[in-house]
Amino acid sequence: MTEHSLWRLSRALRRAINDHHFDALAELLDDDVDWAIYGPIDMFPFLGARHGKAAVLEAIRQIGNAVHIRRLERETLMLDESGAATMVRCAMTAQDSDKPITARLAQFMQFRGGKLARLRILIDTFDLVEQTLGRPIHLPRIGNFA
Question: Is there a contact between 35 and 56 (Cβ–Cβ < 8 Å)?
């Protein structure tokens, strides 16, 4: 049995983010990769939609300039031949402040010919924004649910 594409992609992605080594990752991206990380783009400009290998590699470079991944804890994993879905807790350090940040990510990937063809990531952005700001966000209560 051969190694699932997710494992190769995970190693290459972490190496690209942490060490700025992009060659292995570039080999694993489909030329027409469809990529989207949903979150507050105004606060984190490397989030959002990208299309094509060059645009995705540039987004990964920007992520690597912003954070260093310390640890990934996979909470849930589902694999099939051409896809993967995971729930991950990611422990990072902000590059500009050495401040620790944790985020939960839901990731959905589709592979074609062993390469990443489509990626969607949903981030628990409320918690991420609070950590980045260094303070809780106080929102008004909606309704009376006593």
Answer: yes
